[in-house]
Amino acid sequence: MKAVVWHGIGDIRLDEVADPTIVDPTDAVVRITRSAICGTDLHFVRGTMAPMAEGTILGHEAVGIVTAVGDDVRGFSAGDRVVINSTVSCGTCRYCRQGQTAQCDVANPNGPDAGTCFFGGPASTGPVNGLQAEQVRVPFAQNTMHRLPDTVSDEQAILLSDIFPTGWFGAELAGVTRGDVVAVFGAGVVGQFAIASAFKQGASRVIVVDREETRLAQALAQNAEIVNFDEEDPVETIARLTGGAGVDAVIDAVGVDAQHASHGPAAPDPDTAAEFAAEVEQVAPDANPQGDQWVPGNAPTQALRWAVEVVAKYGRIGVIGVYSPTVTSFPFGEAMLKNLTIRMGNCDHHSVTPPLIDLVASGQFDPTAFITEHEGIGSAIEAYEAFDRREPGWTKVEVVPG
Ligand SMILES: NC(=O)c1ccc[n+]([C@@H]2O[C@H](COP(=O)([O-])OP(=O)(O)OC[C@H]3O[C@@H](n4cnc5c(N)ncnc54)[C@H](O)[C@@H]3O)[C@@H](O)[C@H]2O)c1
Ligand SMILES: [Zn+2]
Ligand SMILES: [Zn+2]
After folding, report:
1. Which residues have beta carbons under 5 A from ligand 3 (an ion)?
2. pTM score
């Protein structure tokens, strides 16, 4: 079968690989009908996350049809149409029983303290072969998939694999409640779903910060208030827009590939620029940029620094943008000074997703407008390249095998 395979930083290829099979009795095999490329995948190709094992299939977002189940998968059978959670979880450990499935004690073969196990991630997350392929082996399938009702199309369901649950989880981490004024950093597709989720959880206003015009336009279409950080200083502007108080809650939907302003009043002074350069050196020592392709973000902690500055005293910050363990700087003292609450992490997909499937099935929310590009798996590498360069309009790419 065909699959997108990680060979090295700056080196991904469409390869012919062996079909997956049932290995453990808790496995299923799924024929993929839709997969997608995520901002998380870009971190691996830009070299801003821990390295992947060469040969690992990329991708952690997919919808498909079950073709086989192991003996201990009792809730699914061949022919079921499912959405696959990005993160793998066992369903039996203490964390899974609390709904904290991103910290499952069992799924990650590197042990209970190794962090989240997910498809198509670094060696430290499994590794588990990913979902940008024609078929996939799903470990702990009983907990790692959800059956889809007929009223939810594949096209709607692909964003239930990771993006909608993560946006929803981000608003929950930020403690969004009725009346809140919320800032969202990053207007990529995760930011877009953080905006939608913040409104659905009661936010009265959402202010979104990015610099990509087509993405800001998508946020505006959701009734968010937009700030372009290359034109204005988001800290000053958000202070003004909130009567000097700051926002109640912030969602960071940027992560480790954050950029600083390239010009305008928010561009860093020489000392801050030097700090950012040192961070990049620490975070992405093996980066392998090729011209304007696979370039790591030039300011890994920029979104976090702005988050601490724009939030009100006693404010809350929810971090869903991904940071690797090599990120070690954070404005801790400034956060202390303001009595902030900061929560973070990978989404608990298994427990977050079911009510969101219902929300889509009932017609209350249609995620399809956020998929801007539809590509066959044959053009997956070119699609990665365009998404990496943030070409106008390339907010979310769905990849259709076959
Ligand atoms: N926690 C989770 O479970 C989880 C799940 C999915 C994705 N993620 C993470 O969410 C983040 C966003 O994913 P995506 O697919 O939307 O990525 P993306 O790369 O498409 O979007 C990131 C956006 O951030 C913007 N940006 C860069 N620097 C900024 C800054 N300083 N301030 C404001 N905006 C800035 C970029 O212009 C871009 O539009 C990534 O870090 C991804 O790894 C986390
Ligand atoms: Zn994703
Ligand atoms: Zn578990």
Report:
1. 89-90, 93, 96, 104, 106
2. 0.97
